[in-house]
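User: Hi! I'm working on a homework problem where we have to compare a predicted structure to a textbook description. Could you give me the structure for the chain below?
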Amino acid sequence: MQGHSRKGANPLRAFIYAIVIHVAFGAMLGVSLWIQPRTIMPVEGKPVQAKAIDLAAIQREKKKKAEAEKKKKLEAEKKKKAEAEEKKKAEAEKKKKAEAEKKKKLEAEKKKKLEAEKKKKAEAEKKKKAEAEKKKKLEAEEKKKEAERKKQEAEQAQRERDEQEAVSAFGAVAWAIQEEVRINWNPPAGDFEGFSALFTIRVDREGNVTSVTMVRGSGNARFDESAENAIYKASPLPIPGEPRFYEYLKEFDFKFSP
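Assistant: Happy to help. Predicted structure tokens:
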């Protein structure tokens, strides 16, 4: 059985091999035919009119286009450069203007500062001058006050001297005034021994009696009245004739007793 099976299998295998070989051969033949050039047979029909290609024109067009592109690029670069320069110029102008404004501002501030310092200095000078004037005025007033004080002191001293001299001069003539009044006294009836009356007498510069005022009476009206009448009759009284004494002797107290 086994031997019969091998014998039957060999023809089948051989058949398969034969088919494979034929396929491979056919494939190789097909490739060979595909690779070899084929002869193209002319086809009848209308003749095709060939159009000549002008390579020079294409090159010129290409060159023209390239030049146009280059020109466009150059113009774009030129425009860009011009815009950059314009921008740079504008920035430079802006910077220049800003610097000019800054300079102007600084000069204005400097001027303002100088004016403020000048004003301050002027005010200080004015204040100093005012203080000097005030000091000078105060010194002048002090000097004037001092001079006035000294003058018043001198006048007071002079008045005191004049008054002392006037009193001394009046003392020298008091007995004469008393005597003149006694001479002109017309005594009323009665005994008036020990009587006295005090009067304030006012006289002018010549000694004329201008008024007589009784300060203290004797207690007897007739005696007082007769004494007053005697004073008026004795006018002018012999007062000192020195004019500077009159201020101290124009009014004086006079005691009359018989």
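For your comparison, note the following. The longest strand covers residues 209-216. Strands lie at 197-203, 209-216, 251-256. Good luck with the assignment!
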